[in-house]
Write a structure and sequence with these properties.
It contains three helices and four strands. It is of the alpha+beta class.
């Protein structure tokens, strides 16, 4: 099963890399703990593990496709 089948629109992320998420700063802190993978957990106890490289590559692709700037959080990961 790939991660696209686990996370759905409307899921609420509760932790990133074991950092509980209450605000954007917590999210950024969790992302900064990434090495090769990022682990997202949701309110419904779903867990999604994503390759950090895949996450960065996808963000660059989506940014170009949908014409928005890459966020500071993802720039720091690159």
């Amino acid at each position: 099963m790939n991660n696209d089948e686990i996370l759905e629109e409307g899921d609420i992320i509760t932790s990133v890399n074991a950092i509980k998420i209450k605000n954007i700063e917590d999210y950024r802190k969790g992302l900064s703990k990434s090495n090769k993978f990022v682990v997202f957990k949701t309110m419904g106890d779903k867990e999604c593990v994503v390759s950090l490289k895949e996450l960065i590559d996808n963000e660059a692709y989506f940014s170009e496709t949908f014409k928005y700037p890459v966020s500071i959080s993802y720039k720091k990961l690159s």
